[in-house]
């Protein structure tokens, strides 16, 4: 009889915890990655991530944080009841990006297994007005000398491009062109000449310009100059 009781107690200990165990809050999302494919620079990507509380207690979203280039907002309530869904809207502005892009949104919750869940937007940003190099670095050059560099503005669109009002934000800088018309697939080559001054160690600034491309109406090309002592 004693053996029978011990066996029954053992079985109860094995069964009861599984049936009485609380799952707590559990965040589940089927697609944490959103591939947006190829877009043109200047386009905006909008996407809504949907997640579910598959636990048996309230899921609390304490914070939503995004990486550079993204804005994120929780569309649902911060407290998601058991069996209910929540939503996070993410918006990515591609104006300052090019090439392959991966942006991350961080979701902080009280789910012990997902204290911080990462959501991703991935894709490629193509440009219609390309600038090579994207940043012009000149030097080192001796103080008092003049150094030249070349900026190439490439029209990668299918239409004629007008570039105008090219101008530097620095002193003692000359540009070979202030603008021009660029046919599809062709390049506008601009020579920048910088004269250094005695005692100068470095100079940073921009070459600014405008275009008639509605997606990239402004040009902002960083220029860095290093001067030898």
Structural description of this entry:
- The protein is mainly β and 229 residues long.
- It is elongated.
- It has one helix and 18 strands.
- The strands form four sheets. Strands 2-9-8-4-6 form a five-stranded mixed β-sheet, with no helix packed on it. The chain has a five-stranded mixed β-sheet with strand order 11-18-17-13-15, with no helix packed on it. The chain has a four-stranded antiparallel β-sheet with strand order 1-3-7-5, with no helix packed on it.
- The model is unreliable at 6-13 and 15-20 (pLDDT under 50).
- The protein folds into two domains: 25-126, Immunoglobulin-like, CATH 2.60.40.10; 129-228, Immunoglobulin-like, CATH 2.60.40.10.
- 8% of the residues lie in helices and 57% in strands.
CATH superfamily of the largest domain: Immunoglobulins
Q: Helical segment tally?
A: 1
> What separation lies between the terminal Cα atoms?
98 Å
Overall CATH class of the largest domain: Mainly Beta
Strand content: over 45%
CATH fold-level topology of the largest domain: Immunoglobulin-like
Series of H and E elements: HEEEEEEEEEEEEEEEEEE
Q: What is the helix fraction of residues, given as a range?
A: under 10%
Taking the sheet with the most strands, its summary is: 5 strands, mixed
